[in-house]
Specification:
By secondary structure, the chain is mainly alpha-helical. The protein has helices at residues 2-23, 30-41, 45-60, 67-75, 77-111. Helices cover 73% and strands 0% of the residues. Helix 1 (2-23) crosses helix 2 and helix 1 (2-23) packs across helix 3.
Length: 129
């Protein structure tokens, strides 16, 4: 029952995101807004627990989610023959760019000096005279 409640929460957040996107004419798609709302909702234990149960259920059946993609590829083999090399080049290039950006960010954060925690005031310091 918890996975169904989690799925209901996911649909609620997506629907609210869609409604906000359309009502306010925002440049972000509704599902993206819904995901941002879900991020905030995950701080609430009731939402977090049921969404975690739904995520576990979906992950255990993840292979079934690839069936429609496989069928779509099979029905459009002519497009894959025409544009397959270009698609492969874009996928490889974008993967390498993503990896390079990730490495750059990690190096920048790793080489940055750690912030020191503020030291507590000693008697007489930090007080107005």
């Amino acid at each position: 029952m918890a996975p169904l409640r989690g799925l209901a929460w996911l649909l609620v957040f997506q629907s609210v995101g869609e409604a906000l996107s359309h009502a306010l004419a925002l440049p972000l798609p509704g599902p993206v807004l819904g995901m941002l709302l879900l991020f905030g909702g995950l701080f609430h234990p009731a939402v977090r627990g049921t969404v975690a149960a739904c995520a576990d259920f979906l992950l255990s059946h993840l292979s079934l989610l690839f069936v429609p993609v496989g069928v779509g590829v099979m029905t459009h083999l002519s497009l894959l023959q025409s544009y397959g090399a270009r698609i492969l080049a874009v996928v490889v290039l974008s993967t390498w760019v993503g990896l390079a950006v990730t490495v750059g960010v990690l190096h920048a954060l790793r080489d940055r000096p750690a912030e020191k925690p503020p030291r507590p005031p000693v008697d007489g310091e930090g007080r107005g005279a």
